[in-house]
Amino acid sequence: DGGITQSPKYLFRKEGQNVTLSCEQNLNHDAMYWYRQDPGQGLRLIYYSQIVNDFQKGDIAEGYSVSREKKESFPLTVTSAQKNPTAFYLCATRQGNGETQYFGPGTRLLVL
Amino acid sequence: SQQGEEDPQALSIQEGENATMNCSYKTSINNLQWYRQNSGRGLVHLILIRSNEREKHSGRLRVTLDTSKKSSSLLITASRAADTASYFCATGSNGSGNTGKLIFGQGTTLQVKP
User: Fold this and answer.
1) A42 to chain B, minimum CA–CA distance in Å?
2) Chain A residues lying within 8 Å of B107, measured CB to CB
3) Residues B49-95 pLDDT 10s
4) Which of A56, A79, A78, A58 is nearest to A68 (CA)?
């Protein structure tokens, strides 16, 4: 997990509320990714960004938004349009043209 | 979208035994990777095998790749209680350009009993 921090570790969302999950990295990696993991399931890609000020939708982008204003930061907002947000959210980075990804410790989002 | 399936979904063995997990995928790939996830934590990269390789070793890990069958296996030899975790395969393809996008399987949960 070193070099990638995600906060908070646990996050509670009320109905109709937008919440933002933080992902910060000090690895100087260009690419960053957000995944959603449901219990007993694999990871599904929400959004990814290869450079600052640019990002693309993944497989399940509806109800989520991102920004990439700085190389180090790739925050994910879970909007009220996401009707089933309860999940474990993982941020990852990739160095240059490398093929492996490096993961943060994750944020667990729960709905009140 | 999920690339494929992992088999078995869950595996329970005694310490010292070998553990074998299988992964199948659907599309052509550039590489296949295995990651480990301890409960409630992020994923950690274990090993990568390229599409032109058939077998790769790293410590107690052995990975095989059969592109004709679109399948891979991960063997952990002489397992330890500390190997208890979920293991995921992930595929990278040329079709994704240089985005580095990976498609993950659903994982195998391994329990190693002391």
Assistant:
1) 4
2) 40-42
3) 999 999 999 999 999 999 999 999 999 999 999 999 999 999 998 66
4) A56
